[in-house]
Amino acid sequence: MRPFNPKAGGTIVIANATSATATQALDRDCPQLSLYNSSATAVAFFRITSFPDNTLGTAVAPTVTTDMPVGPGERVVVTVGRAFNAIRCIASAADGNLYVTQGQGEF
Question: How many Å is the Cα radius of gyration of the chain?
Answer without folding.
Answer: 13
